[in-house]
Amino acid sequence: MIGTQYVVMLAGYNKWQNESIYAAANKLDDAERRIDKGAFFGSIHSTLSHLIWGDRIWMSRFSGSKKPIQPSIAKSVEEVGDWLELVEQRAEMDQNILTWSKALSEADLKSNLTWFSGAIQAEVSKPLWILVAHFFNHQTHHRGQVHSMLTSAGVQPEDTDLFMLPERYLS
Questions:
Q1: Of 25, 28, 95, 106, which cross-links 32 as Cys (Cβ 3.0–4.6 Å)?
Q2: Which residue pairs, CB below 8 angstroms and at least 24 apart, start in 158-165?
Q3: The domain spanning residue 47 has which CATH number?
Q4: What is the mean pLDDT of the chain?
Q5: Does the reported pTM lie above 0.70?
């Protein structure tokens, strides 16, 4: 089982890596960010839109925060259409995730969360620690896709190695 310190570390890592990805993506124009590169969600912008959608759906389950606008995974690529809004909403979401992570207790992580999964059309109940691990793994998975698309577009995000996480993201 994961512990609260691990969750806080991954929330800081998430913030750091999103800042890096968005800084690199900001070097491209809007048309370049929207080119279908053959990734699961197509483009850089669509993948980042899906990622914030996913964070919203999980955070609504974890903390009762606002659910995503779009009703499904298929529509998640349309969650945030404007680049500047996406940048702003990403920064806000990352701060919310960090704040939430610092308020978690070990007992919270051991508890079960029950929700209706639209992805499998069934009610699911799992220990929160497994879902939190999935939450951060999902982010890393799609950021990796964006990292690859950015690299192929000629811009380079920062390193992604966890041991390089700057100390300022842990406080």
A1: 28
A2: 158/16, 158/17, 158/20, 160/17, 160/20, 162/13, 165/9, 165/12, 165/13, 165/16
A3: 1.20.120.450
A4: 97
A5: yes
